[in-house]
Amino acid sequence: MSEINDKILKMRLKIKDMKAQVYPIVNPELLGLDEYIKSLYIKLLCTIILYENDPLEMQVLYLKRIMQGMDIEDPIEEYMKKALELSEVDIEDFILFMKKDIVKCYFAVDGIILLVMGNHDYRNIEYLAELLEVCGLDKNDLNSLSLIAISILQQKSDCYEKAQKCIGHNVMGTDFSPYIKSFFDSGIVSDNEKYIYYRNMTNKGLNPKRIYESNKIIFENMEICLEDSLSFNKCEELNFVNCKFVKNVKEDISCIIVNGCKNLRIEKCSFTNLNNIHDIFKLENCEEVFFQDSLVQNCNFIKDVCGNEKIGLIIQIDGNEKIKISIINSKFQNLTGSSKVKYYRPSFYARPGSIITNKKSYVSNCEFDNIEYYAYLGTRQQDYLKLEKGRMRLFTRKTENIDNKINNSPEFNSKDCYHAKDDWEDDDRGDD
Question: S-S: 339 plus which of 79, 88, 330, 344, CB 3.0-4.6 Å?
């Protein structure tokens, strides 16, 4: 029996070690710190749980989760030892950095959580309060950060919402979504609207007449039925994660209009049964688009295009600006597009339209199945003509094709289209 017990004990210890890997706290702000500041961040947190106490198991686990999210590979035991070797220069460097950086708010929340988890007394509290004060946080800041820490510990949305109402000046605009996303069921809007975080909501909380202009906007675990276009302007970061876009009420629209966004990310989303729309994403003056692990299925598009104009049903780029587009591990199935402009039919002399997006992209491990485009040649429904493969393409001629699968759809890019002759190969006019 003792042998079995020993084995089970080892298994339990292994399971405990794996918890940090399975449940990391991934905070982009902490992950992006340089290695020296990362090291100081963990060492100072270690001093909080070591001061006048022996660290408890749950405190160590929480620290491991933070370290895992910061991509720190060294064992926690090493940092416990290194914490005892902190120099005055280390402390000074840490404080100087924290005074000018919003990271101090995360450090405060992590420190408070660790204190609450342990057998703390007034000396531990005094030590943390002194440390946070010299980092630039005042009494009001600490009050709001304490409430945020409590909401994380209690896993309660209403507690977090109360904390938001008394947010301190130095805390304003801090994104705590990495800490609360596992339990939050509502919408977070920071007081100065620097960030918006919607989770597990219906789209009743979204205002189609509003132009969203926050620095960072996240929609997660939502089902969105579009009555009108959603519009975003000058966002640093716009994320759609695990969202379902279902049949729209209003036709003849661009679903999502984005202007001046640096980083647009679409991950684990589905777009199904969107009918008679112009396009899903209409972008202008944007820098980067990342489309991954998503599905576009059973959608019908109608475009106002003619001549050699490019199309872009999924991602339409207005203007000639350079933009980085990555489409990875996604599926596009049963999509139909048509032009409602009479006599639209790309010819030998006109560049064929690019169906998925009209700008150069990087496309990897995607599937394209049953995608068609029709030209309008008259006034009746039967006057629509399915364009030959050589007249249409999925992407522009310079788009990278990495391990993609195509079935019953146009060719991937222009290499096999009619206009791709030798005298066109170096012609970049309007075709990225």
Answer: 344
pLDDT at position 328 over 50: yes
The model's pTM: 0.64
Measured CA to CA, the distance from residue 223 to residue 296 in angstroms comes to: 15
**What is the structure's pLDDT at 161?**
72
Identity of the amino acid at 103: V
Nearest of 292, 384, 377, 301 to residue 336 by alpha carbon: 301
Q: What is the structure's pLDDT at 240?
A: 92
Collapsed DSSP state (helix, strand, coil) of residue 176 = coil
For 26-73, write each residue's pLDDT tens digit: 888 888 888 999 999 999 999 988 887 788 888 888 888 888 888 888
Amino acid type, 209: K
DSSP β-ladder status, 279-284 and 270-272: unpaired
Helices (H), 135-228: 139-154, 157-165, 177-180
Task: For residue 284, give every residue at least 6 positions away whose Cβ sits within 8 Å of its Cβ, in sequence order, or none.
Answer: 258, 259, 260, 317, 318, 319, 321
Beta bridge partners of 296: 271, 332
Exposure string for 274-298, b = 16+ CB within 10 A, e = fewer = beebbbbbbbbbbeebbbbebbbbb
Contacts by residues 395-399 (CB-CB < 8 Å, ≥ 24 positions apart) = 395/354, 395/356, 395/357, 395/360, 395/361, 395/363, 396/310, 396/354, 396/357, 396/358, 396/359, 396/360, 396/361, 396/431, 396/432, 397/431, 398/360, 398/431, 398/432, 399/360, 399/361, 399/362, 399/363
E strand spans, 42-139: none
Pairing of the two strands 244-246 and 270-272: parallel
Q: Where along the chain do its domains lie?
A: 2-165, 177-424
Percent of the chain past pLDDT 90, that is, above it, reads 22
Amino acid, res. 188: I
